[in-house]
Every structure is written in C-alpha cells, then in structure tokens.
Write a structure and sequence with these properties.
The chain has a 6-stranded antiparallel sheet. The protein has helices spanning 2-9, 37-42, 44-52, 57-73, 91-94, 136-145, 182-203, and strands at 78-80, 86-90, 108-115, 122-129, 152-158, 165-175. The protein has 209 residues and is of the alpha+beta class. The N and C termini lie far apart (35 Å). 30% of the residues are buried. It has one domain (2-13, 33-203): Yope Regulator, Chain: A. The protein has 7 helices and 6 strands.
C-alpha cells in the first residue's frame, strides 16, 4: 500500500524521446506527447511560468537553486511542466561515459523535487533509463546481478508507450534544510556519474538480444 502511494507521487519517466530506433522492433502502443530536448531548451523561458505555477514555496525555492547551479556550470537543460515538474538534462553532460557504453547524445536524465517519505521534507531525485536495449529476460538478469550502490538503485519499470520493460537508475538525496546547497548538488552529480559509469561497465558484459 505504501509502495503504491509512493509510486503515484513519482512522475512517469518519458525517456528516451529521441531514440525510437534504439528500441528495436518494440511496437509502440501509447501516445508520446513529450517534446524533444531542443524544443524544451528553446521554450524554457516560455515554459517556466507553467513549471512553477501551483507548486509549494519550498519546491519553488529548491528548483530555483537547481536552476542557478545548472546555469553556473553552463549545462543545457529544459523544464518540462507536463510530466511532473521535470528538469531535463542530457545524460552525457552528467556522465560523459554514457557515450562509450551504448548511449546516445539524445539520452536524457531527469531531475525533480519530491516530498520525502515522511511528508515533512523534500527529496532531490535523479532518474535515467539506461541505454541497454535487450530483451526483458536479459534485463532482469542484469538487474539481479547489478552491484548494490550506497546512494542509487536500479529497477525495472514498464514503459507505458510500448508496454515493455525499461531498466532505470534512480538516485535520491534528502534535503536538509529543504533547499539544495551547492555542495549537495555537486555531490549528487558526482555520485550519479560514478554509479552510472560503473553500472554501464557492468551492463557491457551482458549480450544483447
């Protein structure tokens, strides 16, 4: 029951919007209403009002801190108000090694702020569908034998656009106080890069279908 409640709060992943060829022969069964990353970039200022409308002040403060951090680092990013207040970042920006292990420049990483499990604070969350395009049985085996990390985790989730499973990396940091500091954001992205790199190296050992 608790797990169902938590899942309802988590925005639905919309990756990989620009890589339909990597999904092989999987038939699409749903409608993909997501925008390409380039459009999110071009319309970021236009989408900002919708992105911040209707969210709590503590969420606004956290997102504004993240935006300043991304701009300070010179990273391109988009704001997606349609799928749960998502910040969209090219995966290779955070983890350049993605391109060495089956990834593509179009792969995206999602960053969002959510309520923590207690309901008393906030949690900074980062998620990515891994560039691993094999059949479900092989992905399940890869998940079973994947390393256990101190911060992030791997899980399988059905993609509502095609009905197949995606292998997803998720990283969550609690925010104390409820706004991310520069030091915490630096650590978040450093941890994500390390754990994603190690995961992708491990996945290289599994044969593709």
């Amino acid at each position: 029951m608790t797990q169902d409640k938590d899942d309802r709060k988590r925005p639905q992943l919309r990756l990989v919007v620009n890589n339909p060829e990597l999904r092989g022969s999987r038939p699409a069964t749903g409608e993909d209403a997501s925008m390409p990353f380039e459009v999110l970039i071009a319309k970021r200022h236009e989408l900002r009002a919708d992105f911040y409308t209707g969210i709590a002040p503590q969420h606004v403060k956290a997102y504004e801190r993240i935006e300043r951090h991304l701009e300070r680092r010179g990273w391109l990013y988009g704001l997606d108000p349609q799928h749960g207040r998502l910040m969209v970042i090219p995966a290779a920006t955070v983890c350049p090694e993605v391109l060495e292990h089956g990834g593509s420049p179009q792969d995206e990483l999602l960053l969002f702020v959510a309520d923590d499990p207690t309901g008393l604070g906030l949690c900074l969350c980062l998620e990515m569908i891994l560039p691993f395009w094999s059949d479900d049985a092989v992905m399940e085996e890869a998940l079973i034998y994947a390393p256990i990390y101190p911060y992030g985790s791997l899980f399988l989730e059905e993609n509502k656009n095609d009905g197949y499973l995606d292998l997803i990396y998720r990283l969550s940091f609690p925010l104390y106080p409820p706004a991310p500091t520069e030091r915490l954001l630096e650590k978040l992205f450093a941890v994500a890069r390390y754990e994603l790199r190690e995961t992708l190296i491990g996945l290289d050992e599994f044969p593709e279908a």
